[in-house]
Amino acid sequence: MSFAWHLGGTRRLHSPPAQTATAAVACPALRRCGAALLLSGALLGLAPAVKGQVTQSEGHDPQTHFLSEARGVMGLLVLPRVLGESACDRFEPTPLTLFATATGPQRVGQVLVRKPWMHSSLGGCEGLDVKVALDGGAADQELPTMERGYESLGAIVLGRQGRRVQIRLSQGTAWVDTGPLARFEPVHELLGRQLLFLVPGAPRAARVSPGGAAARLPAAFTGNGDAELQLQGHRWHKGRLWLHFQTAPNTPCDAVPPTTTRRLSFWLPLHADNGLPNVWYHARGC
Fold first, then answer.
1. CA-to-CA distance for 83 and 194, rounded, in angstroms?
2. What's the confidence (pLDDT) of residue 200?
3. Residue 271 neighbours by CB under 8 Å, 6+ apart
4. What is the enclosing helix (H) or strand (E) of 190?
5. Percent over 90 (pLDDT), the chain
6. CB of 197 closer than 8 Å to CB of 46
7. What is the three-class DSSP state of 76?
8. What is d(CA 154, CA 130) in angstroms, rounded to the nearest whole number?
9. 172 pLDDT exceeds 70?
10. What distance in Å separates the CA atoms of residue 217 and residue 248, rounded to the nearest whole number?
11. Is the dihedral of CA 197, 161, 111, 174 positive or negative?
């Protein structure tokens, strides 16, 4: 896992050294930097999150550059003793065991904190180094993560069976026991508390009910402007997770008051046929 914050409003992508993965945060006392988070060369997050609301994005938002990380995602795994609850979080590092299957005892490796946060007396922190160490002497891997909230990371969950969840590795997947040291957050819970955006093409998948007839959306959802959505609920239908939204004409970030209070309701499958999500979230809001 490699990430760093750059201050002063500058957003830069960089490639970390091949054998190292460190993090540095230089922030004021409350650790709120107003800067972009770089994770494995991908730009994450913009501003504090806004609960349960969605705005359309037609390719101009930085989040769309790393949506491939969300292919097939079913949620994120909070690792308070590996990643912490947030940046600069103080915790006692504890290895996380990786298993080969959803039910068997065969261990395949661990997620380890190779180097914990180093906290500065002036505020901020640096140096968190997290690796996947596979059994058998293989070289360390990076742990793929996504931002689940402001400066807060989680491992990427692709499936769940009983108490175990399947997480993405840099190469392949592994299974993890959930519990106090590995807390699963389903994707509908993540979407329900964030400012969301529709992925280009998603409006064509809108339905009046899960798997039902096509829904007609207002112009704001066809590329002619922004629009706000609120997540109303979710339902499984024929093996797919469907999300229920209600529309409004403006986003919570707009300076101009709404021109109408008309509300429409529709459903979207979480994932398109190619596995990419139809809707995702701005981890840092507007």
1. 20
2. 82
3. 72, 240, 241, 277, 278
4. helix 187-192
5. 40
6. no
7. strand
8. 12
9. yes
10. 11
11. negative
